[in-house]
Amino acid sequence: MQVIELSYPLSLSKLAVPETGQVLAIGDFDGLHLGHQEVIRQAVETARKQHIPVSVMTFHPHPREVLGHERYSRCLTPLEDKLEMLAKLDVASVYLVHFDLAFAQVTAEEFVTEMLMPLRPDTIVVGFDFAFGNQAKGNADTLCVSGHGRFAVQVVRPFHQNGEKVSSTLIRHCLETGQIEHAARLLGRSYSIKGTVVNGEARGRQIGFPTANLALDGCYVYPVNGVYAVQAEVEGSIYGGVMNLGTKPTFSEGSLVRTFEVHLFDFNREIYGEAMRVEFVSYLRAERKFNSIDELIGQIHNDVEAAKQLLLKQSQV
Q1: Residue 204, pLDDT score
Q2: Active site residue 65
Q3: Quick one: which of 22, 48, 42 has its CA closest to 157?
Q4: What sign for the dihedral angle of Cα 178, 179, 180, 181?
Q5: What is the per-residue pLDDT across 35-61, written as a single tens digit (0 to 9) for each?
Q6: What is the CA radius of gyration of the chain?
Q7: Residue 280's closest CA among 317, 312, 240, 251?
Q8: Whose CA is closest to 193, among 245, 235, 236, 237?
Q9: Given 110, 261, 270, 305, the catalytic residue
Q10: Phi, psi (rounded to 5 degrees) for 91
Q11: Contact call for residues 51 and 19 (beta carbons, < 8 A)
Q12: CB atoms within 10 A of CB 208
């Protein structure tokens, strides 16, 4: 998959575009959830029928972050993850458009004429809630009007899961309220984060539960503080485990620093500096302060047993 970085105004002399035309799926695609996947699936299907390439146009940073919505400074799929997932969806190219305050002033018609038309789209595929141009004045309907005689437009209907409309906003809410399995159903996969194993305070090792401390590789949406059953990939292998996400109130009362500590089952190697991907399987309990180290150790034993049972049950499904 080719990644082509674009900014406004386009430098047409450096822009290589398929002579045959192409099918272009456009969206933020944060999370690449089931609804996003359906938009891209329909684009791929249309391209195959017409025997032309399929591309995706997406935006970085997230437009809502640039426009001052602080909540969107963290993503369900930071850019590296999004590109990695798109590469698995039969997409030939990704047009990565740099979004800044100047680009936010581009009108809907300018976006069509100066950003889309040079890409020679034969068909553009968007979700039902697609908005573009200054103050989001462009939408799927206006795109259809703008495209008349120039390109076809396919508008993908809302995607529902068990009667519920799938959206990035709903997935964020699920993660922030501990509804991990619900988020996974909407995403079509477990929510995951990636990071590098770094040195910690070694308290876990001292009490019999060594942990890998993660420094995250991207600005991920944080699930709610608590203890989770997880699966972790490290050095090419998958391990079950428990993760504590939070501020460790038993040891650091009043701290606002959130940490990610993973205890892997049946694992005893040193992996400092190694990459790790962690999938959230289930929310076990809220983080809390314990009255003693022995009380904490007893609870960790319970957490480990609960996580093992959940992971075993999942493996049997």
Answers
A1: 66
A2: no
A3: 42
A4: positive
A5: 999 999 999 999 999 999 999 999 999
A6: 22
A7: 240
A8: 245
A9: 261
A10: -95, 130
A11: no
A12: 10
CA distance 293 to 299: 10
**180-187 vs 168-176: helix crossing angle, rounded to 10:** 160
State whether residue 73 is helix, strand or coil: helix
Residue-wise pLDDT for 207-263, tens only, equals 778 899 999 999 999 999 999 999 999 999 999 999 999 998 888 776 778 999 999
Q: What is the C-alpha end-to-end distance of the chain, expressed in Å?
A: 33
User: Distance between CA 116 and CA 119 in Å, rounded?
Assistant: 5
Tokens 């553009």 identify what position? 124
**CB-neighbour burial class of residue 226 (10 A; exposed 0-12, middle 13-18, buried 19+):** middle
Q: Are 239 and 278 in contact (CB under 8 A)?
A: no
- Nearest by Cα to 272 from 216, 204, 197, 205: 197
Q: How far apart are CA 141 and CA 156, in angstroms?
A: 12
The CA distance from 176 to 178, in Å, is 6
User: How many residues can be counted in the chain?
Assistant: 317
Please report, as a single letter, which amino acid is at residue 119: L
**What is the rounded distance in angstroms from the CA atom of residue 131 to the CA atom of residue 104?**
12
DSSP annotation string for 140-156: HHHHHHHHTTT-EEEEE
Distances (CA, A) of 94 to 6, 29, 252, 317: 10, 12, 44, 35
Encoded tokens for 175: 């993660």
Amino acid at 108: A
Helices (H), the chain: 34-50, 63-66, 79-86, 101-104, 108-110, 140-147, 168-176, 180-187, 203-206, 293-316
